[in-house]
Specification:
- The protein has helices spanning about 120-170, 175-195, 200-220, 220-240, and strands at about 1-10, 15-25, 30-40, 45-55, 65-70, 80-90, 95-100, 105-110.
- The chain is α+β, with helices and mostly antiparallel strands.
- The chain folds into two domains: about 1-145, Substrate Binding Domain Of DNAk, Chain A, domain 1; about 175-240, Up-down Bundle (Substrate Binding Domain Of Dnak, Chain:A, Domain 2).
- Strands 2-1-4-5 form a four-stranded antiparallel β-sheet, covered by helices on one side. A four-stranded antiparallel β-sheet has the order 3-6-7-8, with no helix packed on it.
- A hairpin with a 2-residue loop joins strand 1 (about 1-10) and strand 2.
- Helix 2 runs antiparallel to helix 3 (about 200-220), helix 2 (about 175-195) runs parallel beside helix 4 (about 220-240) and helix 3 packs antiparallel against helix 4 (about 220-240).
């Protein structure tokens, strides 16, 4: 599998090297997948994107295959959404793109021979890079976490309260449901207009998402519908950016 590290929790404590697989092993190729992430703090201007190969939920136990930065992010008082998109083709070439959604600012790398078995020397070099990265990054992360611990706890409480409010509002009024259904139809129509410009794997994903949208509308399943809308909108975000 190929994925990236992120700041999450392990054992109930913050840990900056949690691992999120994006393209999982043993999937038919070519394959493209996108995952959503968020900056760690308000007004954050830079993110490090560390790409790993492996299966362990601890990124440091996997193999580091690439690293890059996205700089000059927009200074937002809230957390900024960053999309990470990976594409792996039949030749074993891995393309990784990170995009700040609100501005479209992006950076990408290409990793050749991604599917080839790593030699002992390559694995040793990757471990060496990881040791340097972790010895520098963990102390920086700990310092940041200590300084912002109280703020993060407050944000978590606010998020929990918001989640409770959302849970209580799942029973939509007819007017609200009509609005969501209309948004779904608009996104679906956009996808159909762009389908000829997409790679084959994107077309398949669009077909699946449109089917999910139609089923959710028929069942008035708001949770499934909003999730499918978001996934489809994120896919179109990348496709339209290439035009």
């Amino acid at each position: 599998s190929f994925g990236v590290s992120y700041l999450g929790e392990r054992g109930g404590v913050p840990y900056p090297y949690c691992y999120k697989p994006i393209i999982r092993r043993n999937r038919p190729l070519p394959l493209t997948r996108t995952e959503r992430f968020f900056t760690c703090v308000p007004f954050q201007e830079l993110v490090d994107v560390c790409v790993y190969e492996g299966e362990d939920e601890d990124a440091l136990k996997n193999i580091l295959v690439g690293i890059f930065k996205v700089k000059d992010l927009k200074k937002l008082p809230d957390l900024s959404e960053v999309l990470c998109r990976m594409s792996l083709d039949l030749d074993g070439i891995l393309h990784v793109t990170a995009v700040e959604k609100c501005t479209g600012k992006s950076k990408h790398i290409t990793i050749d021979r991604a599917l080839e078995k790593k030699s002992d020397a390559e694995i040793a070099e990757a471990r060496k890079r990881l040791e340097a990265l972790s010895s520098r990054g963990i102390f920086e992360a700990i310092k940041s976490e200590e300084e912002e611990e109280e703020e993060e706890e407050t944000e978590e409480l606010d998020e929990d309260a918001e989640a409770d409010r959302n849970a209580n509002a799942l029973a939509l009024t007819e007017g609200a449901w009509a609005k969501v259904a209309r948004e779904a139809s608009e996104v679906a129509q956009r996808s159909r207009r762009l389908v000829e410009q997409m790679h084959e794997e994107d077309r398949e994903e669009v077909t699946d998402l449109n089917q999910k949208i139609e089923t959710a509308i028929a069942a008035k399943d708001e949770k499934t519908l909003t999730g499918a809308i978001q996934q489809l909108a994120e896919l179109l975000f990348f496709v339209e950016g290439k035009r």
